Amino acid sequence: MTKNYGPEYIRAIAPYQAGKPIAEVAREFGLNEANIIKLASNENPFGVPESAKQAMAAAVAELGRYPDANGFDLKGALSKRYDVPADWITLGNGSNDILEIAAHALVERGQSIVYSQYSFAIYALATQGVGAQHIVAPAKAYGHDLPAMLAAIRDDTRLVFIANPNNPTGTFIPAAEIDAFLAKVPSHVVVVLDEAYNEFLAQQDQFESAEWVKKYPNLLVSRTFSKAYGLAGLRVGFAIAQPALTDLLNRVRQPFNVNSLAQAAAIAALNDKDFLQKGAENNTAGYQQYVAAFDKLGLEYVPSYGNFVLVKVGDDAGAGTRVNLSLLKQGVIVRPVGGYGLPEWLRVSIGLPEENEAFIEALTVALAE
Ligand SMILES: *Cc1c(COP(=O)(O)O)cnc(C)c1O
To answer: Which residues are recorded as modified (N6-(pyridoxal phosphate)lysine) (predicted)?
Structure first.
């Protein structure tokens, strides 16, 4: 007889489906790794910034020691960049870690967490991981419906997750709407504003969310070095929140959750304006490349503010899986989103121009099959 270990709410977790690694696709489909193109995890197509590589090389000598548990230098750099005191910052092993820490620090089993339909998969996992109740507000045009989310908040709600821009749909909520939402959220509810793709926003859409943190004691802004900064494999992200909230997060956080190489690389990347600029320009051009191709192929897509696009590849519930398989056989890895309740769609990251072109060609072939 098999024993049921652990609490029921842990056994009920549906594991996160990550983008397939290149080596795995090469093995499965008998392909040469060098010919495989991965556009599945919204990674930076330019890879690790040179500045970060140099900082890591210099930091290797100190790896015999534990990392700085308080991340003094990185917090200092972030404090300067965002104009908030260093004790308003929590470092995370990726911003995923921040989302999990927030749930652990703020929500008791049986209380509720609000997030949107079609929003980031980790919100459901973090909710389930603490045995909280899921309140999933219906999406509007594939994005967050903030009035619906506000209405969904209950007395037992402790946390609201918002992704802006959202993954996997790429939708964006303008600053004024978020501000209006924050002004109405009850004070017993903490809002986690997950801005993993903030750096890809056009100038006119940018706003300083750190300024809202000064106004709203129940706001936590989450950012990452995984996307625009090209450090996904290192795992480093951070939260900005007022000290009362930050102090709680730090009680739950593992003391050495961000390693020394990651801390050194993040400081270098944060100050590497050229790298960010190059990435933003490539992203704008790549987005145009995709949208032109989708229009030509007659495919519906959700206008995206991130470094990826959600595109509808068929009308039946098998379409995403079918087209994805054809793409894999052609050596192109994208992201099926059936798990998000979007089985007719695929999410594709914006890569280098030649990678985007290879995807478009493979997609054209797949659709003709
Ligand atoms: C990629 C992503 C993250 C961050 O991932 P980390 O690598 O853990 O920092 C967070 N939120 C959203 C919406 C994302 O798409």
So the answer is: 227
